[in-house]
Write a structure and sequence with these properties.
The protein has 143 residues and is an alpha+beta fold. The strands form 3 sheets. A 4-stranded mixed β-sheet has the order 1-4-3-2, covered by helices on one side. The protein has a 4-stranded mixed β-sheet with strand order 7-10-9-8. The protein has a two-stranded antiparallel sheet with strand order 5-6. A hairpin with a 7-residue loop joins strand 8 and strand 9. The radius of gyration is 16 Å and the shape is globular. It folds into 2 domains: 52 residues, Roll (2,3-Dihydroxybiphenyl 1,2-Dioxygenase, domain 1); 85 residues, 2,3-Dihydroxybiphenyl 1,2-Dioxygenase, domain 1 (Roll), CATH 3.10.180. The chain has 3 helices and 10 strands, in the order E-H-E-E-E-E-E-E-H-E-E-E-H.
Length: 143
């Protein structure tokens, strides 16, 4: 798989760096006084300094939860997902959606959790016991 790149707004670079580097254990790459490159599970995400934003982010209902429409994240191995969920709970993270398994017994069953970084960017971490389910659909399972 090719790594992806994502740029996103943040309000404080030092707090952002501490969150991604210390809490999520992400390596930091190139930096300036306006942005930070972050190794996010092998992908390059770049935090760009902006002034505070007052826009309310939209959500969509999924599995009875309000999922932030604008979000990013990583798909982890099941054990790594469980370990991160425990670490975040122990750290006192205020989850937008608490860690749980959604679509139980259905195509695409997955573990998921959502939380916000210090600038309010929504992050989702998910896992599949079978990575073949990442792109599976009802139609693909019939074949």
């Amino acid at each position: 798989m090719s790594p992806f790149h994502l740029a996103f707004p943040v309000y404080d670079l030092s707090i952002t760096r501490k969150f991604y580097e210390d809490l999520l254990s992400c390596a930091i790459g190139r930096t300036s006084d306006q942005w930070i490159d972050i190794n996010f599970w092998g992908n390059q995400i770049t935090a760009h300094l902006v002034e505070a934003d007052t826009v309310v982010e939209p959500t969509n209902p999924v599995d009875g939860k309000e999922v932030p429409v604008r979000h990013f994240g990583a798909i982890l191995e099941w054990e790594e997902w469980e370990s991160l969920a425990k670490k975040l709970k122990n750290h006192g993270i205020d989850f937008v959606i608490e860690p749980y398994v959604r679509f139980k017994g259905e195509v695409g069953e997955q573990a998921t959790m959502f939380f916000l970084d210090p600038s309010g960017n929504a992050i989702e971490f998910k896992s599949f016991k079978d990575f073949k389910m990442i792109f599976a659909s009802e139609e693909s399972m019939k074949n």
